[in-house]
Amino acid sequence: MNGKKRKLVIIAGGILLVAIAAVVTFLILKAVGNVREPLGESGGDGQNRESMEESLKSNESEADNREFSPEKRPEESLKSKEPETDSSEFLPEESPEPKESQEKTSESKKPGVESSKESENQNRQEPAEGSPATGPLQVIGTSLCDSQGNPIQLRGVSTHGLAWFPDYVNEELFRELHEQWNANVVRLAMYTAEYGGYCSGGDKEQLKQLVRDGVEYASGQNMYVIIDWHILSDGDPNTYKEEAKNFFREMSAEFADRDNILYEICNEPNGGTSWGRVKEYAEEIIPIIRENDEDAVILVGTPNWCQYVDQAAADPITDWDNIMYTLHFYAATHKDSLRQTMTAALDAGLPIFVSEYSICDASGNGGIDEAQAAAWVEVMDRYGISYVAWSLSNKNETAALIKSSCNKTAGLSGDDLSDTGKWLYSVLTGGGRAGNGLPGEGQEDQPRNQPNSGQEDQPQNQPNSGQGGQPQNQPNSGQGGQSQNQPNSGQENPAQDSHGQPGASAASAGDLNVTLQVVNSWESEGKCFYQYEMKVENISDKSIDGWQADIVFNEVPELSDSWNGVFAREGSTLHVSSVDYNGQLESGGIAENIGFIVSGSANLLP
Questions:
Q1: Which are the contacts of 228, defined by CB distance < 8 A and separation ≥ 6?
Q2: Which residues are catalytic?
């Protein structure tokens, strides 16, 4: 009996121990669950996949409302959390659009396909901050194409010189260009040799940062972006070839993973620079870009302010793919003949990209020629040629898209636009009468053929339309209504005190040596035009603070443009004086890149 009781006690004790162990285990597991639950709520490592996906979706939907900082790349931190995509269609570091949105975007970029504003706004999938869904480009035959081989047409705007109009490089304005204007490309024009230029004393780091900012803002709005090495007064791109090599080496390395970058390696070769010289330069710059980016589209300028595309067609660059050649036109100056030159080059197999144009005359001023502008647009659309308008600025010239009286850098209404700006808005949106659809529209119609229509007088100390320091008035290869003759081209006229021919006299005799050079001349509408370059040298043994020179003609000249000086006309004399940045000259110092355009009868010059 006692043995039996002991056995029962042992069994009961074992059952009790098992029960206690079970209770302890249950309490431990419950405690662990309570710890993990708040970690998951706080976004820690315990967060489940569903809540992670919801968080990413929330971050993407709020991306457009965050402050944009091109130096801070939030997509890098999200990159590992995003689903993998086909790298041939999207940038590796960026999140793609939904398939439906991709198809709509691809369709809207085909030549001749225009989507309505309402439909576009309803279906657009906004990219994450700094994350474009623009796919890689390629050149097939004469066409710019997407990665699937479908023709694509880029249409948008070019900045003016980044050093002179930096405030227009901002996120809000680039958003407007994409969402309201339907632009899908922005060109960042960085001058090389003009005042404040990259190779002429400008702040290189600041200019490169403006390029970076522009790339980020354009990318964030799902646009392509052209990095433009904007040569002009340097004429021959080989002048600053080493600086160009270093610049494109740095930029192409920095943006190697971007599929929305195009490189324009020389804006407008001029001053008699041959295609052979341009090709020689290009064949040294292109491999530098290719070391970092094997397939980015590269735009190569052509001689005579990007008009001699026929010369490039006769001797194209053959060692690399994805090369296009640029043509520039100003509709009131460049007409049927240049269009015929362009189409002939296309028929010969040359891929052409119009990286700069406007609808006024080649100086960036004068009247607007809408008939010629329409003819250009029709041909470019028919051939699927991409085109980028000059210029995103409020400079006091007809080509500026914004009135000179408007100080806004974003939030533009129809009343803020020049006549050129209204025309461009209409073309890009397919909106009929220029300016329709912009908020605040209601401005009365203004004469369309008046110089500087919609512009107010302002000092003209910045270089001009697309030519920074060298306006675009120039003779063309047989282009509409212009003389092929170039009288006095390249002729130098040393400063003279005599009034028998256009010379110059220094304010202080013996202190200055003023040199004038007629670098271009042409005829238009019965007038003779002359483009002058001017150089002022201090030949005294002491520094001077300010200078003045007088240029005398046979008759009263009409001053149509000027840069890097203060110009005043008094009868047949043109007074030229220094501006704040080129007036102080040490002994032997030289003020350069001063210029102007005058016109008159055939008797203007002796």
A1: 158, 187, 188, 189, 190, 264, 267, 355
A2: 268, 356
